[in-house]
Automatic annotation (TrEMBL):
Keywords: Membrane, Oxidoreductase, Transmembrane, Transmembrane helix. It is a multi-pass membrane protein. It comes from Aedes aegypti (Yellowfever mosquito). It is found in: Membrane. This is AAEL010179-PA. It catalyses: NADPH + 2 O2 = 2 superoxide + NADP(+) + H(+). GO terms for molecular function: superoxide-generating NAD(P)H oxidase activity. It comes from the Eukaryota. GO terms for cellular component: NADPH oxidase complex. Residues 215-330 form the FAD-binding FR-type domain. GO terms for biological process: defense response; superoxide anion generation. InterPro entries: Cyt_b245_heavy_chain (IPR000778), FAD-bd_8 (IPR013112), FAD-bd_FR_type (IPR017927), Fe3_Rdtase_TM_dom (IPR013130), Fe_red_NAD-bd_6 (IPR013121), FNR_nucleotide-bd (IPR039261), RBOH/FRE (IPR050369), Riboflavin_synthase-like_b-brl (IPR017938).
Amino acid sequence: MAIITLPVSRSFNVLLNALFGRWSIRALVFYLEKIKVLHLFLGTGLIIVGVIHSIAHFINIINFVDNYDAKFDAINWATGKDDSKLRLLVATPTGFSGCVMLVTLFAIAYFSSRQMRDRFYNSFLASHHLFLVFYGMMFYHPLSNIIKHQTNLKAHPNGCDIIDDHVFRNDSVLQAICSEEPKFSAGDKSAWIWPLMGLSIYILDIIIRYLIAHSDRRKVSTLQSYVLPANGVYLRLRFTSSKRIVISAGQYVLLQCPAISTLEWHPFTVVDVSIHNTVSLTVAVRGDWTQRLYDLVSEKERLKQSGAGHDALGRLQFLLDGPYPSAMTGMLKCKRIVYIGAGVGITPFAGFVRHLLNFNTDRPSRIHLIWIVRKAEMFTWFADELKRLQERFWKQNKPDRFTLKLFLTRNYNVNVIDEYFGDYPTLKARINKGRPNWDEVFLDLTALYAGKSVTVFSCGPKGMTKELKGMCREYRKHACKFTYLHEGFG
């Protein structure tokens, strides 16, 4: 309980990045990649322990009533053999709070399932705020002082209560040993300190993020907003503060649109940062919030084209929180990288490409990109950047520094490809039908980089992530040192 909130305390992760980012980028990237797994692991462990704890207390309730003994009234939860087990379960502070905590855990777990999270994100978000109820009940839970210990063992040692009354009255030695009636106390409680520490860090994180997000330094104005082919939205925002906001390639921000919801913050990778304090985001429709954003931007474009005026719906307002580090920030530190993106999973690489276009850097020395989409139109999102990167390395006489493979998994139509990529012949030539053959991909990499280290980055669905992780583990045996890092917001 003390650390379950740490993985989702973003300010804490920023602090780790500031303290250890320069010291060990690999260790930091590993932590950032695993924080969600850690949070899930701790949450699952909490449910398991909670269920075991509850079952034990259900059994205790039965034993307290069925085995009630008036001699031990001070340590018995029940008031007599005729006491109601249901009363102990739901009408006492310990029983009621325990039931509420158990129901709360199950509700959070249910709405955290991938199916519920993807389809009903608002419910997922709201259910997670039940942790405040859980914490409140947890601090209330021990107030009944059910668990007690004897405080006068010297004056009443173990065994005194099983001595026959007649024997006890006629034995002065026993009377001297068992000179007092047993006394019990719940003792001092200190376990609450540990979860309070984690809760305090989380609340402090919320306060810091709120103050930063609503400060003048993080206020943004909308410069551009338009829809993209294949259900996408492009946003270009400018910080109103004159002080430069430093954002690195691979970092992400949390975005709120008050016109949609004043409670929801959604993470999006920054795809471009300029010296003019502007930041660009590319958003794919993947749920009710992004669908609403798409509808708002589409409606603004429709009204503008109909002559109703650019601000017919008013300029879209956003709040921005961040930036925050991610596993993708390590790309610029690696010598050889393979980036595999599925659909909108290309966005971390897009920010990396624009960094390479804006700055002359020697790392990475070799870059391999594999981009997998369902609709050919999505390739147009970053076609200009990919073309420019190819041309730059060709002019530098380094054509092998960047290799590109594009895969279209559905509706492969030559006419559609010709329509969209007539101006991008080098990209068009790299569009393949179907999915990548991962064995062929990794065999080629193994032959190319035998005995060398290669870092594989990916952003995509869970199935692809699992498969790529297995491939890296398998082909690590073939004298090529593959390191696998994954990013995902799902």
